[in-house]
Amino acid sequence: MNKVVSLHERRKNSSRRQPVRVRKQVQYKNTFDYAMIVTLVLLVCFGLVMVFSASYYMAETKEQGAEYYFVKQLICVGIGAVLTLFFMFFDYKNYLRFPVEKHPWMKPLEKIRPYWIILVLGLISLALVYSPIGVNINGSRRWINVGISIQPSEIMKMALIIFLACSIGKDPRRVKQFKGLFPYLMLLLMVCAIIYFQPNFSAIICIVALVLSLLMVGGARLPHLGIIVAVGLAAVLLLVAKESYRADRLEALADPSSNWQLKQSLYSIGSGGFFGRGLGNSMQKLLYLPYRESDFIFAIIAEELGFVGCLAVLALFGILIWRGVVVAMRAPDLTGMLLATGAVAMIAIQVIVNIGVNVGLIPPTGVVLPFISYGGSGVIIFMSMVGIMLNVSRHCAPVVPVKETGEVRVRRRDESAGEEPEAPRRRKNREAGTEKAPIAFAEEAERRRKERQEREQRRT
């Protein structure tokens, strides 16, 4: 039979000295996603090695020096590193509005929205390809020359990500209605029209996929997006049928031997085997495979490093995309989530398209492999987007202890008495003789419960 313990005895037992546990109070700070930083460094360094390996023979045949393309890529990586550091420490919330509170001299700019300025600059860069500084290569005006060749379509991708993230994040209810999607669709149509006359059909596909990804994550309804996708596919079929060379590229998927680039790419991948020929020992880069240092660098990786090297590259991209998704999910607001989502989508789309082209699943499009392929504007923009993701991660990263600031002594439960130790206020009231009776506690609890129910009813 259980012994009945009186209320007085339980109070007496609970007032005795009990063992305590010490919980340390710690000051915390937010940090960057270091896994993302390490992955970025590995990809960029690996890209420099592969650019040199894939391009030195071609550079020597042009009497430019074996390290010509490597040095140009190294300069662009240096610029990208500086921009990565800048965007890492530049608060992404400043894209929404200028920090007038911190910098009073910006007071005249209070009503100006920076993300609109970024969008206008992106559109201007697209228009510059038709100016005297525009460069025509193989019948396409896709670049501008300002000492180094820059592809404005890459700048436009970054501008669109920032603009859409800030615009949707400011008013997320807009995209839930079809009429709210209309301004974004008009902007997308204008950008695609400018790029179409360059022409750069691959950039159009990447930009459309990027914008649709942001709209979907931003809250657009799937039926509305389905209508847009259906109209877009019809437009793609019309554009393919209009130009014979695009139809020829589609036909090459069924018969790879009819397309020289695709055939040489498959030869390169197949000859690599499991471990590859060895770094620098590719045969297809000896002027057999076109664009070996840019569009088809994945085929050179497969030939020199084999299946194992390809898996390592895919693993690095997988880690980078995974960390970007984690940052997007932990972002403190919708703008940060969309910025991280846009960066992840931009990288993932180009990785899928580039590798798909190299293995013959997608027609040749001219899309480079992020961080690895030769191309100044590409590596600069991709590194900048990772910098933006790192800034978002700084606002949502897991807390890291900085220093101990004190201790809190917490009394353990008195198992022998079968109850929690008394709170200090209750013990003080008991000693002063002003402790409420159990009935009074029950009445007060019932009164508070009724008040909560009334408040909830008023809210609903």
TrEMBL record:
It catalyses: [GlcNAc-(1->4)-Mur2Ac(oyl-L-Ala-gamma-D-Glu-L-Lys-D-Ala-D-Ala)](n)-di-trans,octa-cis-undecaprenyl diphosphate + beta-D-GlcNAc-(1->4)-Mur2Ac(oyl-L-Ala-gamma-D-Glu-L-Lys-D-Ala-D-Ala)-di-trans,octa-cis-undecaprenyl diphosphate = [GlcNAc-(1->4)-Mur2Ac(oyl-L-Ala-gamma-D-Glu-L-Lys-D-Ala-D-Ala)](n+1)-di-trans,octa-cis-undecaprenyl diphosphate + di-trans,octa-cis-undecaprenyl diphosphate + H(+). Residues 410-460 are annotated as: Disordered. GO terms for molecular function: lipid-linked peptidoglycan transporter activity; peptidoglycan glycosyltransferase activity. It holds the Pfam family FTSW_RODA_SPOVE. GO terms for cellular component: cell division site; plasma membrane. The keyword Lipid biosynthesis does not apply. Its EC number is 2.4.99.28. InterPro entries: FtsW/RodA (IPR001182). The chain crosses the membrane at residues 34-58, 70-92, 113-131, 178-196, 202-218, 225-241, 296-322, 334-355, 367-390. GO terms for biological process: cell division; peptidoglycan biosynthetic process; regulation of cell shape. Residues 444-460 have a biased composition (Basic and acidic residues). It is found in: Membrane. Keywords: Cell cycle, Cell division, Cell shape, Glycosyltransferase, Membrane, Peptidoglycan synthesis, Transferase, Transmembrane, Transmembrane helix. It is a multi-pass membrane protein. Peptidoglycan polymerase that is essential for cell division. Belongs to the SEDS family. FtsW subfamily. PANTHER family: CELL CYCLE PROTEIN (PTHR30474), PEPTIDOGLYCAN GLYCOSYLTRANSFERASE FTSW-RELATED (PTHR30474:SF2). This is Probable peptidoglycan glycosyltransferase FtsW. It comes from Guopingia tenuis.
